[in-house]
Fold these 3 entries.
Entry 1:
Amino acid sequence: MSAIVRVEGLNKYFGPLHVLKDIDFEVAPTEVICIIGPSGSGKSTLLRCINFLEQPDFGVIEVGGVRVEAHGRGRAYRHKIHELRLKTGMVFQSFNLFPNMTALGNVIEGPVTVKGMDKAEALELGMHYLEKVGLADKQDEYPSRLSGGQQQRVAIARAMAMEPEVMLFDEPTSALDPELIGEVLGVMQQLVEDGMTMLTVTHEMGFARQFANRILFMDNGRIVEAGPPAQLFDNPKDERTRDFLGAITRLGSHE
C-alpha cells in the first residue's frame, strides 16, 4: 500500500541551531504514529514542518500525493502548500479556538472561509463533528464557558470538519488537568477506530502503547529508534531510548 505521508531528508535550522537532522520516514494509510522523546528533541517542529507551519530548510514533504520541496517560491509553490494543508488537520497544545465564536462557529469557520462551503451545509457538517466529540449540546457556548477538555474536543471537531486525510496532534493533552485528559484521549481513540491516519506527539505512554502502530523516538533532532510499541517499550535497542523510558517509568505517565 502506498504511503500517505512521506518525509525525505528533512532538515530544519533556527539560526545556528540544527533542530531537525536528516529525518526520513513514511506513514501508511490508517497508520497511527506516536512521536516521543525528551523536550527539545524536535518533535513539535517535525509535526509543524509536515504542514509547513514551519518552513523546512531542506527536504521533501508529501501528504496524500501532494509533494512539496523545501524553500520553493512563487504563487504555484504557495498553492501547493495550501493543497497539502487541506489534507492535514492540526490540533495544538493550547486549543487556539477563536474566543469570539461559539463552539459551532469555530468548527464551521474553516469549511466556509477556506473551502467556500455553503453555510447551511457547513452547519450540518459542524453539528456532525460536534456530535462525534460528544459536544452537540455545547454548540452555542463560547470557549470561555467550556472546560479545557471541552475546548480541545472542539478543536478536534474543527480539524475534522475540514475532512483531512491525516491528523496531526501536537501534545493535545499537555495543557489539561489530569481529570480532563481521558475525555480527549477517548475522542482520539474513536478516531483510531474509525481508521484515521494520525501522527501524535505525546507524553501519554499508555495511549502510545495501546493505539500506536509504530513509535518514533526522537532525541537531539534525529529519529533514534522506530518500531512497534511492544518492541520499543519492552526491548528498546538504543541506550537513549532506554534512558528516556526508564525516566518516564519512574515519573509515571507524564513528564
Entry 2:
Amino acid sequence: MTLSEQIEEYILQHIEPEGDYLHRLWRDTNIHLLAGRMASGHLQGRLLKMLVAMIRPQRILEVGTFSGYSAICMAEGLEEGGHLYTFEINDELEDFTRPWIENSSVADKITFIIGDALTEAPRLGMMFDMTFIDSDKRHYVAIYEMALQLTRPGGFIIADNTLWDGHVVDDSYHHDAQTHGIDSFNDHVAKDQRVDTVILPLRDGLTLIRKRS
C-alpha cells in the first residue's frame, strides 16, 4: 500500500461512517456499471453532506446523477423542507439508479429526472441555493453558465473532476475532448468576476464556487 493509500485509509477511519446503504450502493455501482469509480464514494460523499449542512440550501440542483450516490449524500444534509433535483441525461441508467434513490431514507427529498439539464433545469422555474456539477466534461462551461443563471446571489456551485487525474497539467492529454473541456472550464471560472472560487485537491479535484452578491 502506498503512502497516499495509507493516508486515505486513515482518513476514512476517522470520519463519519459511510453507512450500510451507501456502502451497498457503492459496491453495486462498481459491479454493475461501467466506470463505477465515477460515484463520489465515502470521503467525497461525507464532504458533500457536510457542505450541504454548512450552506443550508433549500433547493439543490445536481447535473449528473449517475448511480445516485452523491444525490443521496447531499439529501442527507438537507434540513426539513429542503429538496434536491437531480438530472441524468443517460436514460440507460434509470433502471439501476431510480430504485436506489426511491428506496433510500431520503427519497422524499429527491426528484430524479431523466433529461438534459441544460434545457430542462431552467424549465423548473426556480432558483437554487447550491448546484453540484458532475456530468459530461465537454460541456462544463455551458452547464456552469446555465447553473450560474439559476443560482441565487451568495449561492454555491460545486464542480467535480476538475483536476481530471492530473491530465490538466499533462500536455499529452490536451487533444482529448474531456480534458480540454475541464481545462477550458477551469480557465473560464478563474477569470469570472461574478464568482469566488477555490479548487480542492480531493480525489479527482473538487471546485467550490460562490456567486457574488
Entry 3:
Amino acid sequence: MPELTSAPLMLALVALAAYLLGSIPFGIVMAKLFGLGDLRAIGSGNIGATNVLRTGNKLAAFLTLILDAGKGGIAVLAARALVGEDAAQLAGFTAFLGHCFPIFLGFKGGKGVATWLGTLLALFWPLGLAACATWLAAAALMRISSLAALLAAVLSPLWAYMLGAPSLLVLAVALAALILYRHKANISRILAGEEPRIGKK
C-alpha cells in the first residue's frame, strides 16, 4: 500500500466521487443508444462489453469496453493529480466497486474486468499492459472471456511484484479477489463446460 498522506475527509470525497463515476452503466447506455434492447435480458445478463458483444454489435461492445475502462482510469488519474498516490489507489478501488455494485442499478452491476484493466493501466501502465496481455493471450487460446479475465486477475499480483510495484500488491490482491467473487456463476459454468464463448450471440 502507498503511504497514507492525504486528509481523511479528502480521501472520503475521492472515494465517493470515484464510486459514482464507476456506477455509470455504460453497457446499458450503449445498448439503449444502439437499440439493442435490455442488456440485462440478453446472454448472461451482465452489463459489460462481453455481453454487449453477444448482441452482435461490435461497435457498441467496443465503446462499452473503452468507457468502462475509462471510468477506472479517469478516477485514478484525477485523484492522483488533485490529491496524491494514496487517493489514486482508493479511487481505482472505489470506481471498481461502483461498476460491480452501482447505486443507479440497485447495486446489481457488472463483473468489473474492463474497469479493473483501466485502473491498472492508469496506476502503473506496465502492470496494466501485463494484465491486458494475459487476458488477450488466454482469450485467444480458449475463447472464453471470463476464464481469460480470471487468469489475468489471479496473475496480476505476481506481475505487480515482478515489475517492481510492491505498493500495488494489496490493491491487486483485493481486486483479484473481487473479480473471482463476481465470477462465481461463470466459474460454475466453466467447470460444467457451459460458459459461452467469445463472439457467440
